Amino acid sequence: MKSFLSGLLALGAATAAAADVPAGAVRWYVIATESGTPIGHASEEVIATREGRDVVDSQEMDVGEQVGPPTQIIGIGAPSTHLSSRTIFHQDRDGRTVSIETLNQTGRDWSRVDARIEGNKAAVTRETAVEKRGQTIDLPPAVRFDDGDGLLESWDAAKTPRLEFDSFDIDAMAVEHVVIEALGPADAEGGTQALRKRFTGNMMLNATQILVGRDGHIVEARHPMFGTVLVIRTADRDTALALHPAYRLLPNAMTKSLYRIPQPATLGHMRYRFAFQSGTQFALPQTGEQRVTPEKGFATVDICADCGPGLATDKATLADALKPTAWLQSDAPQLKAIAEPVAKLNISDSEKMRMLRDKARPYLSKIDFTGHYSALETLARRAGDCTEASVLLAALGRAAGIPTRVVNGLVYSRESYHGVANAWMPHSWTLAFADGKWRSFDLALDNFDSTHIALTVGDGDEGSVLAASQLAGLLKWDSMAEVRTAP
Fold this sequence. Notes:
Layout: H1 2-10, E1 26-33, E2 38-48, E3 52-64, E4 81-92, E5 97-106, E6 109-118, E7 121-128, E8 132-138, H2 149-152, E9 162-169, E10 174-182, E11 192-200, E12 203-212, E13 218-225, E14 228-235, H3 237-241, E15 247-248, H4 249-252, E16 255-256, H5 263-266, E17 269-276, E18 290-295, E19 298-303, H6 315-320, H7 333-343, H8 349-360, E20 366-367, H9 375-381, E21 383-384, H10 386-399, E22 404-413, E23 423-434, E24 437-441, E25 453-458, H11 462-472, E26 475-484
Parallel strand pairs: 3-15, 20-21
Antiparallel strand pairs: 1-2, 1-14, 2-3, 3-4, 4-5, 5-6, 6-7, 7-8, 9-10, 10-11, 11-12, 12-13, 13-14, 16-23, 17-19, 17-26, 18-19, 22-23, 22-25, 23-24
Helix pairs in contact: 1-11, 7-8, 7-10, 8-10, 9-10
């Protein structure tokens, strides 16, 4: 369920580096639910420096699980976790971004990402309490670091209804392609409604509806998330910093099912049909268990043990699924020590993955829904939920020489889970190329069934986890049916 929580602060305030913000100026924003209940705040501040200026984006919120009445105030007897994020864009006197640094904190846990921009390269370092790891990212020509804000300041949507550019995202540690499309003419106050979509390659990551004011600044952003919509809007300082009710995280990250799925059906073949919000149709991934049939405005998803074609199996794809990453540190001695004895056994890769699943389970003895942590962090914390489970198992698989990926999507719960039954919720699990086929392994729930709906496939990175929750918010359930129950 972490995909919902991980995305809250990553949404930011949709500001960053507006060219005409004077030094010393601060813009304030409220982060709220669709009903208007505030759950946090954000700000943007410009600070003059000897080298140029710093643009500082900050976000803060407190979230709690289903404890106490919904009117309980954060900090007054309500158990909660404080989340904060602070990103600094260092710019030279010509307004060029030369480096970016961000610090994310979830309770006492922290992570820091620094990016130094050098020509067409970004040298990125991610540091946590357990590891520091760097990588170099190629930057395309004319890449932006302001999320397109500079373009919006002079945007005439009547003449140019579509903006398109590449943007470097420090949280994702990657370059994304962004498309902003006007949804109609300006309103009576000069504001323009637009749809902002983000892509990595051909895969859409999210679609956010924004309101661009007459002055070219975003005054409101509506982010669909699974089970809810988060709204970020401009506010004055007192409104932004006012005390707010505790946000009950788990119930808001679940959606009631169209009908109660019988247990035998979950072990057989299920078929789901989805509609998409207007203008947001995207391609769902096809795994070894999931087959997707697209049509205009809809997608039909079949899930069973052998329904899907699986991921690609060429040498380059399999080699990429063996590489260590900042989230899957399969080259770390701690992970290799667990995986190598299993790798040496004369058994099938499927049996090795099941053994690795059993070896990983003790490192998740404590359930923790906050934050999103790498495989090494999970070993150190001995806590987590489905995202940590999937990341840890994927890293152990790679350490054992088995290509793996991490899947993020939805899963169904028939029984009551934190007060909600017969519901769908965000979930993550592991894919492994075992015995000549891509197969799913679920450490968090022990077994994979036909209610696992894949929305993104990645390397356990926070970006793909967040994208799954946001894409789920763009889906509308049309129907679901049992095609075949288990014998």
